[in-house]
Write a structure and sequence with these properties.
alpha/beta, 276 residues, TIM Barrel
């Protein structure tokens, strides 16, 4: 089964996407399955994981309802307030849906870079682990030391780094991203999504050569058994079409990786991680 492990749907009129403004250009409109499904069919993607784009439980419920109607959806990575006293009850409620796979706090947007180490947050992460739920890690390189420490404190938590932790591809910078990601990758329960690459490069003029060094390092750190393809559609449209994103990764995976390794990256690992 080929699986896109990271894409989004949203409706502007919902009003809870604080980051989604007219200045976002092509992204400032509704995106739904009717538009994505033809792209999935062309790339032979059978299922997707839809990931939260708003820090609200309301959006999570909206996405779970969408799963009931859309066959291509295999699961939702939603949002909960990890410092809310009622988080345990809320997780149990959301987990009644077989489509609820885990949560993603929008760490990159928070003022406190060390938010993930707050005591109440760590307790909530332990609750995720107890329930077999996962954590998507949306960060930039400066957050990685805190993420590594969190993983030491909650070693039973299954986690995945989104967008390879957003290195400065446009500037050609490897550090401190590489050192930080190496510490995170040393935890065997942590996966990484090969997603969001083109939007961290020069949007209008990116090349394979710009992105290849980052993919090479991530493949070295995580290996074929802990990597997942994610389109980051529709955000990727700022720099590339769905097909271009998929073809880019096909080209940049190591030549030594055969059919089995590539099948794992393009679906098998996501199925295992998200229990599909």
């Amino acid at each position: 089964m080929r699986i896109d492990a990271h894409q989004h749907y949203w409706k502007v009129e919902r009003g809870d996407y604080g980051w989604l403004t007219p200045e976002q250009g092509i992204l400032y409109r509704d995106y739904g399955p009717d538009e994505l499904c033809p792209e999935l069919a062309q790339q032979q993607m059978e299922r997707t994981i839809v990931v939260q784009a708003a820090p609200t439980v309301g959006e999570t419920r909206y996405l779970l309802e969408l799963c009931e109607r859309e066959e291509s959806l295999a699961g939702v990575v939603g949002w909960v307030d990890l410092e809310d006293d009622g988080v345990e009850r809320l997780l149990d409620e959301l987990a009644r849906s077989p489509y609820f796979k885990g949560v993603r706090p929008m760490l990159q947007d928070l003022e406190d870079d060390a938010y993930i180490l707050r005591s109440q947050v760590l307790r909530s992460l332990s609750l995720l682990a107890e329930r077999g739920l996962t954590l998507d890690i949306l960060v930039r390189p400066r957050h990685l030391p805190y993420v590594a420490e969190m993983l030491e404190r909650v070693p039973e938590l299954a986690a995945v780094v989104d967008h390879i932790a957003k290195p400065a591809i446009a500037g050609g910078e490897l550090e401190p991203w590489l050192s930080g990601l190496e510490k995170v990758a040393s935890h065997p329960q942590v996966f990484c999504k090969l997603s969001g690459l083109v939007t961290e490069a020069d949007l209008a003029h990116w090349t394979d050569a710009d992105i290849r060094p980052y993919v090479t390092e991530v493949c070295r750190l995580f290996g074929p058994e802990r990597l997942m393809f994610g389109s980051d559609w529709p955000v990727c449209l700022l720099a590339a079409s769905y097909g271009e994103v998929a073809a880019l990764l096909e080209r940049l995976l190591p030549d030594s990786w055969g059919e089995a390794e590539r099948a794992a990256v393009f679906g098998g690992n996501a199925a295992r991680f998200y229990r599909i």
